[in-house]
Each structure stands twice: as C-alpha cells, then as structure tokens.
Design goal:
The termini are far apart. The strands form 2 sheets. A 7-stranded mixed sheet has the order 9-8-7-10-11-13-12, sandwiched between helices. Strands 1-2-3-4-5-6 form a 6-stranded antiparallel sheet. It folds into 2 domains: 2-57, Spermidine Synthase, Chain: A, domain 2; 61-276, Rossmann fold, CATH 3.40.50. Strand 4 and strand 5 (45-50) form a beta hairpin. By secondary structure, it is of the alpha/beta class. It has helices at residues 61-75, 92-99, 112-121, 123-126, 141-147, 172-180, 199-212, 255-260, 266-276; strands spanning 2-4, 7-13, 16-30, 35-41, 45-50, 53-57, 82-87, 104-109, 134-138, 152-158, 182-193, 215-222, 230-237. The longest helix is centred in the N-terminal third of the chain and has 15 residues, at 61-75. Helix 1 crosses helix 2 and helix 7 crosses helix 9. The structure holds 1-{4-[(3-aminopropyl)amino]butyl}guanidine. The site of 1-{4-[(3-aminopropyl)amino]butyl}guanidine has 16 residues, from strand 6 and helix 2. 1-{4-[(3-aminopropyl)amino]butyl}guanidine binds at residues 10, 53-56, 64, 88, 90, 92-93, 158, 160-161, 191, 226-227.
C-alpha cells in the first residue's frame, strides 16, 4: 500500500495498482493480526483497507455483501434460518442476513479491532452486531468450527485474501470441519478472489471444497473497487438446487443475476477445471 500525495493505492503487482484520491486518512491501526486503515475517498466514500487491500467502500459494499449472502439463500434446499459468518468483522454480511430474516447469526471475527473500526466508521454495517439475533464472537474461525456443537443452515466465509491470517480458510481441512457444522441441506459460501489476478485463490477454494462436498458452484459479480472488478464466490453443499427456490431483491442482486452470475467466462472455467484435476 502507498499513500502518496493523498492517493491510496492497492498494489496488485510491481507494475499495477488501483488508486483512490483521498480527502483524509481517518485511522490507521496495527493490530496483532494486520494493519487496518480507513480513508475518506472522493469517489467511493469511506474505504476500509486491511494490509493495503480494499475490503469495502461505502459506495459498492452492497454488491459484495448481497452476493455473498443472497445467492446461497435463494439456492439452498431448505430456507436458511441460521447462519455462521467467519470473518466479516465489519458487519456487512450479517446485516444482509438479518434483512433476509434469518433468526440466528453467529459471527466469528478473529480481530476485535476490525469490529471497533467498523463501529466507528461504518456504523450502519456494524449496527448488525446490536441486533438480538446476531451474536458476535471474537475468536479464531478455524478453532470455532472445530469445537462448536451447533449446526448452521448457511456458512459464509467472508475472509481476506489467502495470504496472512486467512490462509487457513482456503484449505480442505477447514472445509471438512465446516461440513461437520452444516445442517442437512446446508450451504457454505466463500469469497474466492479475482479469477484474473488471483487464480490461486479460486483454485484453492474450488479444489478444497470439491474434496469435501459433492456439489460446488462458482459465480461472479462485478465489484469495481476489487482487483479487476470481476470477483468470484464459490458455494458448496451436498444439496444445492439447480434453480432458485425463493427470491431476494437487492441493489445488485435480482432474479436475473441469481441465474446469470453462474454463467462463467471461459478463462474462469479453466481455472476451475485446473482445480478439478
Ligand atoms: N472481504 C475481502 C475481500 C477481498 C478483497 N481483496 C482485495 N482487495 N485484494 C471483504 C470484507 C467485506 N465484509
């Protein structure tokens, strides 16, 4: 990450970066796990960065958060009543799940500072943690899924990229313990990175989930502030419907996106095929 003359840049490589002109840097904290920054940008409102990578902005967070919750919600065999969110310390995924009417949400975030920063700078997202249906646990998601006795209809892995604290969330071992805490007919969904710039993230998620679940499906969304804009999510379960069973409406998500998001460009299919071998 660089902050040069009021520009924040996420570096993709030595030769490429995406820059946002910023009015102000609102906070910068170094935690036990990572570095967290919030910027006030001209084009996208407030921006949350972790270790120099864009996590969300005021202007386009709805796309990511709708797509990581509403897609599995409409494709699940039984209507999800309970959810486990791993990561997601900003509260954005939990907020959408509450809007979908889920009765119980457990959100396990490893870094309490992500929650604190979100409460201060993204109060609307973090307000989900004040809802009586939502239970925030500060702890290691991997440890949580290996120890809990509870089962969940939907498990949302809202992690950072597979470098740093989130690495273990992209492994078959983790997905095995996820399966143990998934209800019958339940679905797990993970953010699986930019198919163009981070094929390894998609490969890891796809091959790891395939080792554990009989049904694995990748879909994409357009998220302007993430590397390349084209972002992938991968959901898995033993029973995923071929067509949506219920509807949900968002600012990005609708019944057409529910189907169209699964129509993958050829190069994305190739990344997934590579993971199958
Ligand atoms: N989760 C992280 C998405 C990864 C973004 N990667 C990047 N910019 N290189 C989003 C957190 C929102 N709840």
């Amino acid at each position: 990450m660089d902050i040069i003359e009021n520009w924040f840049s996420e570096r993709y490589s030595d030769y490429l970066q995406l820059s946002f002109r910023v009015r102000d840097q609102l906070i910068s904290v170094k935690t036990d796990y990572q570095r967290i920054d919030v910027f006030d940008t001209y084009s996208f409102g407030r921006l949350l960065s972790i270790d120099g990578t864009v996590q969300l902005t005021d202007q386009d967070e709805y796309i990511y958060h709708e797509m990581i919750t509403e897609v599995p919600y409409v494709y699940a065999k039984r209507k999800p009543q309970s959810a486990l969110v791993i990561g997601g310390g900003d509260g954005g995924a939990a907020l959408r799940l509450l809007k979908l009417g889920l009765k119980r949400i457990v959100n396990v975030e490893i870094d309490s500072q992500v929650v604190e920063v979100s409460r201060r700078f993204f109060p609307n997202l973090a307000s989900s943690f004040d809802d009586p249906a939502c239970h925030l646990v500060i702890g290691d998601g991997i440890k949580f899924v290996s120890e809990t006795d509870e089962k969940f209809d939907l498990i949302v892995v809202d992690s950072t990229d597979p470098e740093g604290p989130a690495e273990g969330l992209f492994s078959a071992n983790f997905y095995r313990s996820v399966k143990r805490v998934l209800s019958d007919g339940g679905i797990v969904v993970v953010q699986s990175g930019s198919p163009f710039y981070q094929p390894r993230a998609l490969e890891l998620a796809s091959s790891g989930l395939r080792e554990v679940f009989s049904n694995v499906k990748t879909y994409t969304a357009f998220i302007p502030t993430y590397p390349s804009g084209l972002w992938s999510f991968t959901m898995a379960g033993d029973e995923i419907m071929d067509a949506p069973l219920r509807s949900a409406q968002g600012r990005y998500f609708n019944s057409e996106v529910a189907r169209g998001a699964f129509m993958l460009p050829e190069f994305v299919k190739q990344v997934i095929h590579k993971a199958e071998r």
